[in-house]
Amino acid sequence: MFRNLFKRKSSGVSWIVAGLGNPDTKYDGTRHNMGFLALDYLAEKRGVPITRSKFQGLTATVKYGDQQVLYLKPMTYMNLSGNSVGEAARFYKVPADHVIVLCDDITLPAGTIRLRDKGSAGGHNGLKSIISQLGGDGFLRIKIGVGGNAPTGDELVDFVLSKPSKEEMEAVRNRYPDIDGAVDLMIQGNFSLAQSKYNGKGK
Q1: Does residue 32 carry a catalytic annotation?
Q2: Options 3.60.15.10, 1.20.1250.20, 3.40.50.1470, 3.40.190.10; which CATH number does 2-197 get?
Q3: Domain assignments of the chain as residue spans, ordered by start
Q4: Is the pLDDT of residue 157 over 90?
Q5: Which of 32, 124, 143, 175 is flagged as catalytic?
Q6: pLDDT at 11
Q7: pTM of the full predicted structure?
Q8: What is the pLDDT of residue 5?
Q9: Is 70 exceeded by the pLDDT of residue 135?
Q10: b/e burial code for range 76-97 (CB count within 10 A of at least 16 → b)
């Protein structure tokens, strides 16, 4: 059904890697912006600045072997991330299972990542928006732990919009190479291997 939404001619992009976050500078480095930071790592490693304004976000294109990949940072704010991801996916005719989303997860301790190929939003408004725009939950995701002991209710908003401790941020950064390796394997079509190799707390 998702493929039937496409009307434009494909421009060679076969995968989308979207890092989620909030664009205002006051959110820089906060827990909710872990997707932005992880995508920045991937782009810096490949010498590709994510600066082109398109699809209600900032983009860059990069090659993974023979695959053309779009890096995408939605500038819509977290709750409307799907507007940006959906627009890019429809334009390039990228099916949902070729979309990889990097995002924070408050249920996982810092330093833990979890790879999923489908599933509910789990209360994450960015994922909820993407599910709505892609017409289902069958997209890939790498969840980046930012808590594990997150508060509930009104305090949760303050928590996700606050910055991790120095130790927590170091634990997250230590997993960037693993996130990079997982994305590479996913694009190669080796999702199960990526899961077995990188799921969990790491070494």
Answers
A1: yes
A2: 3.40.50.1470
A3: 2-197
A4: no
A5: 32
A6: 56
A7: 0.92
A8: 46
A9: yes
A10: bbbebbbbbbbbbbbbbbbbbb
